[in-house]
Specification:
single chain, five-stranded antiparallel beta sheet, alpha+beta
């Protein structure tokens, strides 16, 4: 988002009324086609749009509406309020009756105008405090990093992805060898726990690489490889 364009839009904001700030930034909160409420009058839940998980893989297909705390729903309209604006709903709130109350999360992109080529991710606050909140924040950071990535950074990222895929293949090979042990001399649950921990760590490494935190990722990968090598040796001994 161009800094001068943002300043221009902020200068237009001279009121303190509710939602007065959002139109200045091109956010159609509680706009056309939405239904806002203080508390739901029927059972409702969030449903992910089909293409939403292409952008945010950790987004759940369905998410429960909060039963306590903040329940005043303020959706964003899926209809653009500026020329060149594109609103892509991510999570829609739908009632048991089939009623669509509007998106509780959406990606707003600006193709032209003072806010181009910026984008805003709108998320109704309580979603971020739900079980899906952490995953959505992670995916958002990865998405932001991808938008800002240059050619050299993209090449570095591709090299990282190749290297991580190779390490995952090694870990999977250990799993196959573990399954081939017919008469284990000890309880194999220990080895499975180690494999699970290594799998979790490699997922964290992917996130670090995705946001460009390559120096720290390299240090962690070296530690990870040492643990994997130890596991490989121990599993090899089981088969003898």
């Amino acid at each position: 988002m161009k800094e001068e364009g943002l300043r221009e839009q902020l200068r237009k904001f001279q009121q303190t009324l509710r939602f007065a700030f959002s139109p200045a930034l091109g956010l159609p909160i509680a706009g056309k086609g939405t239904v806002q409420f203080e508390a739901p009058s029927e059972p409702v839940e969030f449903v992910a749009e089909p293409k939403a998980r292409d952008l945010f893989p950790r987004l759940p297909e369905r998410l429960a509406f909060p039963q306590r705390g903040e329940r005043r729903f303020r959706p964003i309209s899926a209809e653009p309020m500026m020329e060149g604006q594109r609103v892509q709903p991510l999570l829609r709130l739908k009632g048991q009756s089939g009623r669509d109350y509007g998106p509780g999360a959406a990606l707003v992109e600006f193709g032209q105008g003072p806010l181009a080529p910026g984008a805003i991710l709108y998320v109704w606050g309580p979603i971020l405090t739900s079980n899906a909140g952490e995953g959505l924040l992670r995916d958002t950071l990865l998405w932001v990093a991808a938008r800002r990535r240059g050619k050299a950074e993209q090449e570095t990222l591709m090299a990282w992805e190749t290297e991580l895929e190779q390490q995952v293949a090694r870990l999977n090979e250990v799993g196959l060898r573990l399954k081939e042990v017919r008469e284990p001399p000890c309880d194999l649950s220990y080895f499975r726990r180690i494999m699970g921990a290594l799998g979790q760590q490699i997922r964290h490494l992917r996130d670090m690489v995705g946001v460009g935190n390559w120096a720290q990722a390299r240090a962690l990968l070296e530690d990870w490889q040492e643990e994997l090598e130890t596991l490989e040796r121990r599993v090899a001994l089981l088969g003898r």
